Amino acid sequence: MTIKLQVKNLTKIFGKRVPRAKELLKQGKSKAAILKETGATIGVDRANFEVESGEIFVIMGLSGSGKSTLVRMINRLIEPTEGSVLIDGEDLMQIDKKALREVRRKKMSMVFQNFGLFPNRTILENTAYGLEIQGIDKATREQKTNEALDLVGLNGYGDQYPTQLSGGMQQRVGLARALANDAEILLMDEAFSALDPLNRSDMQDQLLDLQETMHKTIIFISHDLNEALKIGDHIMIMKDGEIVQTGTPEDILTRPADEYVEKFIENVDRSKVYTAGNVMIRPTTVNIEKDGPRLALKRMRENEVSNAYVVNSKRELVGIIDARDVLELVRKESRDLQSIVNTEVPTTDEETPIADILDDISQTGIPFAVLNDKQQLRGIIIRGAVLGALAGNEVNHFA
Amino acid sequence: MLNLMTITKLPIANWMDHFVDWLTQFTGFFNGLTNFIGGIINAFQWVFDLIPIWLFIVIIAGVTYLANRDTKKWGLIIFEVLGLLLIWNLDFWRDMTQTLTLVLTSSLISLVIGVPLGIWMAKSDIVQAIFKPILDFMQTMPAFVYLIPAVAFFGIGMVPGVFASVIFAMPPTVRMTNLGIRQVPTELIEASDSYGSTEWQKLIKVQLPLAKSTLMAGVNQSMMLALSMVVIASMIGAMGLGTRVYFAVGRNDAGGGFAAGLAIVILAIIIDRLTQALNRQRKH
Ligand SMILES: Nc1ncnc2c1ncn2[C@@H]1O[C@H](COP(=O)(O)OP(=O)(O)OP(=O)(O)O)[C@@H](O)[C@H]1O
Ligand SMILES: [Mg+2]
User: Where in the numbering of this chain does the ABC transporter domain appear (chain A) (predicted)?
Assistant: First the structure.
């Protein structure tokens, strides 16, 4: 993975007496204390992070934690007090106005919370704005604009005005405008926050779909942890201008850095986050090509289970056997395990979110078998472990 | 307590006199300006003298119809036609066109100076802080007072009338341009900036279009203020309906004064409704 964007020591102090505030900040004074002493507001306090090429990097935090300020320093809509922003290794703070304009035109596009559409322009003209100011000729402009509108499912709306569209559609235009520019980096400041839950969920899906083919580097700001967990490859949590934790969704959920993050993840809908792979446990297995009924029975007794999963020598799943049937076999002095194998085992793969199989888990008596793409048995899902994970307990993998 | 009456009276009047005297040295400059403004006035007047009265009425009615296509204001159109016919009938036609010339010239100059000034104020808080009190001053100072320097610089006639009208009528244009641009939502400015617009592109493509209806409301106000100056301007020789009112006052001729006043009201309503309709038209 290559690093697309690198932020070093990025700081923004609003208000007067900035030098004094900076000094206090270095002494480790809190945002509130500095505000009281100097009247200056710490927007962002020495942020350091890296964003990989092609990932969705979500920035989270409560209101006023500095998310918007941070993202606006990345394209210098807000001039940083200190620090640097490197895009493909080039420091944005060192370039002049003209070069900055070029970067904004070619490398970064922004999507806004309240869509930021120009009410006096049609959908087509709005979408073409970025291209228009670059002086690109009308034919090329229209072609690219229509392509972008196609991508977001809005072809045919080009001649309408923004107010004629629903909120969800307006934000699609906002997205299309960013896509039309073909920029590698998208900055999205609470882009879906103004939408109702249904529309928001739709937009998230659409963004993920688009991302599959386009591989943009996306900095996405959100209030909503469920949203962050759904779309984020990495999540960064901010508090009072400081970065509290950066990590994968799993990191954040399983190893919250402090109480603030813990509070944040308290109400999350874990079923959308945890995958089958996260909650599966080690099954009792029997190799049908080697093992006999007696060994199977012994293993089941040892593990205190009434079922065992039958696999072949390649560890591919064959089916499941019940302890009572095995006992019967032993009594009949038969070694024919094959005759008692039940092949009707519900299966899933490691990536499947629990939410998708939750209903089935609670309905079928047989635990799900988790298979990898070679049909090998990786683990099984028992109800107890699922409920434990949803309740926020650490999953004891392969206990 | 100090009695302010006992200290020497501050020579404000003196200072102003000296300042105006000092300005009158630049006769060359003022002559040039006089010629320039006079040129605009003559051009307008030439056009109005050229157009036959019936055609003028048809044009006004037609423009009103086109500007109100969606609402079809027949009442307004009938009012305009009857009103203009009345002015013609009262033999005020030439006076009316002279007044219209004065208003249009003043508004044009207000627009040409006022819009850039308003833009400048919108772009800089310091400029705004400087000009705001000046604009307040220009608008609240009794309009009469402007006649004196106007005569000093430009003599007697239409030109000093235009000058005084511009000073009195320009503030709304400046103010509303400033306001209109500052009212553009931050997110739209950010959108424009974030896609790499130059300052000029941002102004032309985003700020001015979105400020347009506010700006036009300012222009409308400026025109009304310019119209309110016509009687005052007539005292320094600016011809038109104002002159008729002014003379009527001098001769204690209530009837004549009322008739000329009525003509001004008719003109005011036509200008007001027409500029408003044109403004509405451009909005989506
Ligand atoms: N232009 C400004 N002048 C002064 N202070 C500002 C300015 N912009 C932001 N701030 C302050 O900086 C801090 C961070 O604000 P910011 O808008 O970045 O927060 P946020 O995380 O985006 O919040 P929200 O979730 O409400 O959008 C806040 O304390 C805010 O009051
Ligand atoms: Mg914000």
Answer: 5-265
Alpha-helix runs per DSSP H in chain A: 18-26, 31-38, 67-74, 97-106, 123-127, 129-133, 138-151, 167-180, 197-214, 225-231, 249-254, 259-265, 276-279, 293-303, 323-331, 354-363, 383-390
What's the pTM value of the predicted model, to 2 decimals? 0.78
Domains, chain B, in order of start with CATH, read 28-280 (1.10.3720.10)
DSSP-derived secondary structure letter, B10: P
Listed residues: CB within 5 A of ion ligand 2: A 68
Whether residues B210 and A119 touch (CB distance < 8 A) is answered with: yes
Identify which of A131, A86, A79 has the alpha carbon closest to the alpha carbon of residue A106. Answer: A131
Q: What is the pLDDT of residue A393?
A: 59
pLDDT band, residue A198 (cuts 50/70/90): confident
Which residues of chain A does B188 touch, with a Cβ-Cβ cutoff of 8 Å? 116, 118
Which residue in the set A103, A106, A118 is minimally distant from B188, CB to CB?
Answer: A118
**Ordered structural domains, chain A, with CATH:** 52-269 (3.40.50.300), 277-390 (3.10.580.10)
B contacts of A130 (beta carbons < 8 Å) = 195-196
Give the Å distances, CA to CA, from A263 to A31, A144, A252, A257: 20, 45, 11, 11
Cross-chain residue pair B195–A181, CB shorter than 8 Å: yes
Residue B96 CA to residue B240 CA, distance in Å, equals 6
pLDDT tens digits, B131-167: 999 999 988 888 888 888 888 888 888 999 999 999 9
Q: Which residues surround ligand 1 with Cβ inside 6 Å?
A: A 14-15, 41, 43, 61, 63-69
Q: How far apart are CA B199 and CA B214, in angstroms?
A: 21
